[in-house]
Amino acid sequence: MSTAFAKDITYQGFPAIHLRSPAGAEAIVLLYGAHLVSWKPAGGEERLFMSEKCIFKAGTPVRGGVPVCFPQFGQNGPLPQHGFVRTRMWQKSEAKVGEDFAVATLSITDDDEIRAMWPFPFKAELSVSITDTRLDIEFGCENTGTKPLEFSLALHTYMQVKEVEEVTLEGLRGQTYRNLLNKDAVEEKVDTGVSLSIDDAITRMYYETKNPLLLREQHRSLGIHTENLPDTVVWNPWETACATIGDMEPSGFRHMLCVEGAAVKDPIHLEPAQSWWGRQSLVAL
Ligand code: TA6
């Protein structure tokens, strides 16, 4: 029987929290970016992809795990790509073990540097909770200012897969998507496939995704469920683009698929004192 814990550690030079649930599941979340870098369900293998060439350096995004994209997705606005919280230090609010879970909650608020980019006082929280086979990643945001604010959010989850050409993503049939590979294309399409197979570069934003999605591999599967995150981004750079990503090994694209719970098409609008949350949950099957 393993011992459950929620302890402070250093991971690749960054302060981090290492969780182990009573059933033996484990997760590691950095204070830098509130970035989840590892999740192993009880008795199982690592389920998050981390690039072997990841650069662990303040100011540089971490390649792999679960980047938190807030308050902007991609380059849809004036802020740095995917917003600014993924490259800032968060604070630890709580880390504890319960009867059948372990949880860590991190928070970040605006400061002078953030307000110079984005003049909206806010408090954001990210909590990572693990049980035996389940991971919940929940992002919350409160408008602590005196004027309305708007933001997008994506939990940019890099799923680790043995061989991406052998996986299928099920549950997207009939869903409308926009192909983000072609930045000029405004055309929307409906996915008519029984399941999605990956054999080329893909960057799609699916709207109003139904729950759950199933990422099926030959030897294991992953159930993906979201709440309050209506959009799903599916991303794999494939060979040519992967070769241009400096912090990713050339074969990295074969071992990952990003399936990102997101709220992008319709940004979240918060009046003063209003708050909002969205969650992505993974179940190892
Ligand atoms: O979510 C897909 C995406 O926006 C892609 O277009 C791709 O650029 C990816 O995110 C990674 O972005 P990053 O800034 O982490 O290199």
Query: How far from one another are the termini?
Result: 21 Å
Poorly predicted runs of 5 or more residues: none
Which percent bin holds the helix content? under 10%
Strand order of the largest sheet: 6-7-8-9-21-18-17-12-15
CATH architecture: Distorted Sandwich
Rounded average pLDDT: 96
What is the element string, with H for helices and E for strands?
EEEEEEEHEEEEEEEEEEEEHEE
Main CATH class:
Mainly Beta
- Small ligands present: 6-O-phosphono-beta-D-tagatofuranose
Strand content: over 45%
Please tell me what the overall shape is.
globular
Radius of gyration: 18 Å
Helix run count: 2
Overview of this structure, please?
There is one protein chain. The chain is mainly beta and 285 residues long. It has one domain (5-284): Distorted Sandwich (Beta-galactosidase, Chain A, domain 5). The protein is 4% helix and 46% strand. The protein has 2 helices and 21 strands. It has helices at 112-117, 238-242; strands at residues 5-11, 14-20, 26-30, 36-40, 68-69, 91-97, 102-109, 122-130, 134-143, 149-155, 158-160, 168-170, 176-179, 188-190, 195-197, 202-206, 213-216, 221-227, 231-236, 256-270, 275-284. The strands form 3 sheets. Strands 6-7-8-9-21-18-17-12-15 form a 9-stranded antiparallel beta sheet, with no helix packed on it. Strands 5, 10, 11, 13, 14, 16, 19 and 20 form an 8-stranded antiparallel beta sheet that branches. Strand 17 and strand 18 form a beta hairpin. The protein is globular and about 45 Å long. The protein starts with a strand and ends with a strand. Bound molecules: 6-O-phosphono-beta-D-tagatofuranose (TA6).
